[in-house]
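ASSEMBLY PREDICTION REQUEST
Request ID: AP-0331
Submitted by: J.K., bench scientist
Number of chains: two
Total residues: 740
Priority: normal
Notes: Please return the full assembly, not individual chains.
Input sequences:
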Amino acid sequence: MQTELSEQLGVEHAIFGFTPFPAVAAAISRAGGFGVLGAVRYTAPDDLKRDLDWIEANVDGKPYGLDVVMPAKKVEGVTEADVEAMIPEGHRQYVKDTLARYGVPELAEGEASGWRITGWMEQVARNQLDVAFDYPIRLLANALGSPPVDVVKRAHEKGVLVAALAGSARHARKHAEAGIDIVVAQGYEAGGHTGEIASMVLTPEVVDAVDPLPVLAAGGIGSGRQVAAALSLGAQGVWLGSLWLTVTEAETHSRAVTRKLLAAGSGDTVRSRALTGKPARQLRTEWTDAWDDPNGPGTLPMPLQGLLVAEALTRIQKYEVEPLLGTPVGQIVGRMNSERSVQAVFDDLTQGFEQAVDRVNRIAGRVPQS
Amino acid sequence: MQTELSEQLGVEHAIFGFTPFPAVAAAISRAGGFGVLGAVRYTAPDDLKRDLDWIEANVDGKPYGLDVVMPAKKVEGVTEADVEAMIPEGHRQYVKDTLARYGVPELAEGEASGWRITGWMEQVARNQLDVAFDYPIRLLANALGSPPVDVVKRAHEKGVLVAALAGSARHARKHAEAGIDIVVAQGYEAGGHTGEIASMVLTPEVVDAVDPLPVLAAGGIGSGRQVAAALSLGAQGVWLGSLWLTVTEAETHSRAVTRKLLAAGSGDTVRSRALTGKPARQLRTEWTDAWDDPNGPGTLPMPLQGLLVAEALTRIQKYEVEPLLGTPVGQIVGRMNSERSVQAVFDDLTQGFEQAVDRVNRIAGRVPQS
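STATUS: Completed
Returned structure:
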């Protein structure tokens, strides 16, 4: 499965895998795809260094990349305390009441909330890049708009391609103008932050909008048929995130989350502002229902909502409070029904792709030769 | 573009076109596809008879079908007056106030509202079928659940295939159990009534759920690349509705609606209950905004909402009140940027399909022969 982009990056298959787990990223690259490590959780540069060292030792020399969360607009001199002070008391009380209703225990004294807003701040991402540019990464992706001009320049000087996610053609054109190399067209059905345009419509629209820049299709892809569809739509590869959440190599924090993912159908996700204040697709839970409840206070804008719920989510995850326990994931969760190795998932994708191509060739009246 | 289903129906291309306009349906069949006439607006059997006669005279002997709106559950002894009486006064006042705010003129005395609930009632659909079964229709589609068992039986006795729309795998399995022959998997991005699962995820899910029944993919399809994608996903054909709204053969009531469709982007639709009480994708307008406004009374359930707004929609259309004027349409509206003949649209679809197959074959390393 070779496109100009996969050839440029030196990978066998134009399958890009985004994952927060180093073991999964390395396994994706070893299997012939392109593993991309999500860096948002590395607030300490040494932790990122440790995990990139591990990938280097385990990737068999195959190429890989890094995904950061770097806001396009710089927020100067705003501390976490400033943001905390903007959260209304009524919202804090709603979090307390909701947790109390489900009997969610408190954290131990001095135990930190796992997720902090700092992971989303530009300086943190810049510290991550200072670490990452010492490694032979081939791709730098940004999940939050185009990266700043100096970052794009620095990446290009190092021979690193820059990718950015887009949920609309307008958004994609802005990326192209900012000098990025690859657009990831993220459809409505994708996990995490998404727009409202579904992949079937979005992918060719973005392809046409940024031509000749290569586009990766993201959202709704978890089988070889879907890979073939995305490539038919004009993408130069696919960008898969959700599918790796249930692979055996994933160092998932919670067995309960894995069980929920394996059991969920395609209709069990919701595009909700409950997590960050911007619409993000995730498992629908009684927690997301509480934030979408017209009788509740509703969500706050980014970054307030994320800060408001950070400690609550840590408690829900730590104590595995099933009705409230969720995770970002796309509609493809309906196909994630067993725990398999990355290699087994890859074999399924590539074989399914070949079968889909065979089938479409028969429909088109072609007699293909290998 | 030949699948088992297109061969069974004797059409050249596995492209099914749903349209309320006889001239469009006939042109689709003449172009080598399968035209399906939407019957919901034919409350008088003689009108349907007149238009089927016209199709017969203009379809060059090519096969075509009919789409009815037949509720799965029978509602006995309920008149339009009974339903009218269930509409709260506050909602009626909200309609009046909204129309007044935009200065929408009244209808002339005795002038009927164009759309009546009767078109959605089982007896009306049965009267339509009594007419249609005298014509050599090859397919009967139902937009509202599985048709009643006796209707499926009657169709099969006449050699007519029965299709039903589904927005989820569960829904599709119910159709299969009801003995229908074809499932139309209608994705989130489609125009009209839709569920929440996008075509990229829904199509293969429905294909697997009802195998070996053939599935047509609907939603987000308006180019050859999208046709290739849908067939890659396992569909035996595509079902296109929105795309024909702006063809030159369409007897559109309103030039203003056509102008709005040609100008709209993929982000200019909304899935709203404003039209019928069930979520249906349509152009976003100040009218749909008024019904989605948290300060308004909100929508009523089907069939109350449709009856509540029927006269208002007739007035908005008649006087072309631009800010309020909309129509059901899918996200593919972003590609509907010029008025072309059905044949030109068809040529674009089939040539684009061939190019997409060429491209995917190159990616797969195949050297296809014609």
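REVIEWER COMMENTS: Chain B touches chain A through 56 residues (CB under 8 Å).
SIGN-OFF: pending second reviewer
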